[in-house]
Amino acid sequence: MSEMDTILDAEERGRTGLWPFWRKSYAKGDPLPAFPAPASRAYRFDEGDPLPEEYKSLLLRMLRHEGERAGNKSFLGLMATCLDLAEALFPDRESKLIKAEYLAEELKHAIMFHRLAVGLERDFALRDVPYAHYSFHLPRETWADDAYFHFFVDLNGAFHSRDWRESSYVPLAKMATTVERDELGHSEMGYHFLQQICADPRGKELAQRLLAKWYPAALDMFGRSDSPNVPKFIHWGLKTIGNAGIRELYKRYVDGKIAALGLDVPDERANRKFL
Fold this sequence. Notes:
Number of strands: 0
Structural class: mainly alpha
Oligomer: single chain
Number of domains: 1
Number of helices: 11
Mean pLDDT: 93
Low-confidence stretches: none
CATH superfamily: Ferritin, core subunit, four-helix bundle
Largest sheet: none
Shape: globular
Distance between the termini: 48 Å
Order of helices and strands: HHHHHHHHHHH
């Protein structure tokens, strides 16, 4: 049995009525919006192929933002923080176990991205890249904060992974579907917790108040709409859509989910740092 077969077998044995959360979402069809087709399919690179200098620089830049690598100490620190929060804030034993399943799946991603990094540049595989975006540093003081973190931040990962399905870098395209599915499931885990929280009037009031903190940070995660690097990413086939376009698709998706909780969607420009 291969390394990945062992992991897949362990995943199967970990399934419950709720976990993995992506199962219910994809059973109804494709839950994510359609992305544009690649502007060009002129480039295709596999592991070990010589890469144009600009292409490799852009690919490494993109992967630095991803962060889920076994050799990235900051990622392991983030996972430890998630564990500490689950230990301190969990409302019941089932929720605590669900968070343990989440951590296990993120560590699976760490293996996958580590293998990709080693095949791309060995020095990069062990490089510590601290999480720069402020959404990772917002205080998570309540279970609702933690739920929003997963609902919004993991969903960002699902949307980017959907775009990677068409990546011109073959190793990334091969793993994109799995990462997309898992990250959507992590977002749905957060949404499941939000549904429980909003079932109580006080919890719903708290969730509405916290939206003012998490909603702008979520939209800001896609970067500046006028980023000069976007045309380069699209030219090389590393992305199919710009920051403004993917942000708009994401916004429509989360706005519908927020409204379904009975919450008011915040002003999209309020408290924003990157437009």
